[in-house]
Amino acid sequence: MRSREKRLPQEVLGEHLEGFSKMRIATLRFAWLAGVLAAIVSASSTAGAFYEARDAQYVSTSPNPAVIRYIICLEDAVGSTARNVAIADALAGAEKSCERWALRLPNTPGEPNAGDIRQSILHCGFRPGDASPDAGCGKAAGAGNVDRASANPDQVVIAPEIIEVGKWAEGLAWDGRSLWVAESGQRTVARIDLAARRVVDRAKVGRLPTDMVATAGGDVDVLVATDKLVWKRSANGGSATLTKLDECPQAMIGGAQALWVLTLPDCSSDKSRLIRVDRGNGRQSRTDELGQWGQAMTAQGNQIWIAHARGPALTVADQDTLDATSIKVSGASLWSLAANSRNVFGGGREDENNEAGLVVMFDPVNRTEVHRATMSQLVTRIVSDENHVVALGNKGTIWVFAARDLSLQRTITLSTGAFEPHGAIFHQDSILISVGQFSGENGAVFVVGDWRPGQRQSNLPATEPVAPAPGQRIWPSFDCAAANSAAERVICANSQLASLDRALDAGYGMALSNITSAAVGGTAADVLAFKKEQRAWLRQRDDCRGDENCLFAAYQSRLRVLDKMNQPE
């Protein structure tokens, strides 16, 4: 065995990481000779030396702790392999030992994936001097780079159109003519004329309507959770209970012939079940009991995929036989699912950490993980088409990924400020998002346009406020009941100023986050200086008192500053 003092990966995570350059992947010009390969894994001049974060940056100059941790784990495992094992075989064994760390790699533009890291190690080793002189490997991190990254993702602030609805908005459905939203707090579903941006009709359905499914022909099915039933409204306007359930329903999706209802058999999170409901006559078929805390479903081909927040993260059931198989996903707690014709996408968090959100791509044929991306919020809703995957965080941030490889393309903050999404669907060129509580206990539907990467960089104008729809009231980011200045009271009474205040609050939050990001590397002093600057602006704003023109000018000036700070370099 190779003898060397070892340090656990977590012991070096706190090391200072210098530089913010991208992955060093040397151009492959010469294959290593067998003797050189053996020399790399031998205890040569570096035998007995600690392998630390600064050493790992020879393999990758990424400052991401997950990348550093994975490389250190690989070096430690390879260093514990017998000397007569070829480097390729030793590295393959190390990759298996370090699989849990590989799954935490960021997998975002500018960051290496496990294949990139393997390629670099096989070509250049773990340290300067490991590679042969003609291999083209630099002596320092970053030398001889080949950049694999795509264009940098942008960060934008978008002001959505807002359709106010009733109490506690939940699921959404489009029936080919109208948008439907469940109003769980008032036992109704609302029909929205999307062109007019207003509610035109309501129907009583029972206690706590949540998920909705609609057909292009106009039929609408509603999952009514407390009453444990599925309510059906036909295209001709007739309505009735389609079926009653004897278990607590969690979620519902629809197919051509059947509805699929996810339930908790004993109304606790200990186990789940999938029930098939015939859309014509309401007859039920069911699986055996499944894993814990089922949260969401999606259909892919002839399979129903079920996300679990606890236990095995996934269950896959056959639509015909209802045979079900559990799939373990390392370090993942899944809360949402979506699919396109090629892949299934799960959103959730790492273990129990709501500040370590993730999106995972799966191959539905082999039922294996293909890619993983991480973000700063629990992902509670996810939607996808053939080109994009859109993940919505539990605090309202929206991430847009490429559907082919989960490379991040755009991060969106809405001018409304933080919110919790309860439903999301694509409609034409927009994303429709239901928000449980927007104005008091009443919810809203946000219509988010220009969300695709490459569309306008920001729709927060520097010179004009966002005009509310007729009859729409917009509230500022602060509590109007606690407004303690003349300026704040005027802002509360003016929806256009309130819209600007929400936009500024979102832009300020984004700028503050950018200062502390790895790409900027701001210090605590930088953060304090930025907060001091914001407080000074607030004093200037309040000096306007009741002068609306003065307030408009103050907000427009500050928005220009924040918008410039939030543009990618």
How would you portray this structure in words?
This protein has 569 residues and is α+β, with helices and mostly antiparallel strands. The chain is 21% helix and 33% strand. It is built from ten helices and 29 strands. The protein has helices at 34-40, 53-56, 65-79, 87-97, 99-102, 114-124, 486-493, 495-515, 524-542, 548-565; strands at 154-158, 161-167, 169-174, 179-183, 188-193, 198-204, 209-214, 220-224, 229-233, 239-244, 248-254, 258-264, 273-278, 284-286, 294-300, 303-308, 314-318, 324-327, 332-339, 344-350, 353-363, 368-375, 379-384, 388-393, 398-402, 408-414, 421-427, 430-439, 442-448. The strands form seven sheets. It has a five-stranded mixed sheet with strand order 1-26-25-24-23, with helices on one face. It has a four-stranded antiparallel sheet with strand order 2-29-28-27, with no helix packed on it. The longest helix is centred in the C-terminal third of the chain and has 21 residues, at 495-515. The chain is flat, with a radius of gyration of 27 Å. Mean pLDDT is 81; it is low at 1-48, 139-151 and 457-467.
Summarize this entry quickly.
By secondary structure, the chain is an alpha+beta fold. It contains ten helices and 29 strands.
Figure out the total of helices.
10
- Biggest sheet architecture: 5 strands, mixed
Given as residue ranges, the uncertain stretches (5+ residues, pLDDT < 50) are 1-48, 139-151, 457-467
Strand content: 25-35%
Structural class estimated from helices and strands: alpha+beta
Distance between the termini: 48 Å
Helix content class: 10-25%
The whole-angstrom Rg is 27 Å
Strand order of the largest sheet: 1-26-25-24-23
What general form does the structure show?
flat
The strand count comes to 29
Task: Name the average pLDDT.
Answer: 81
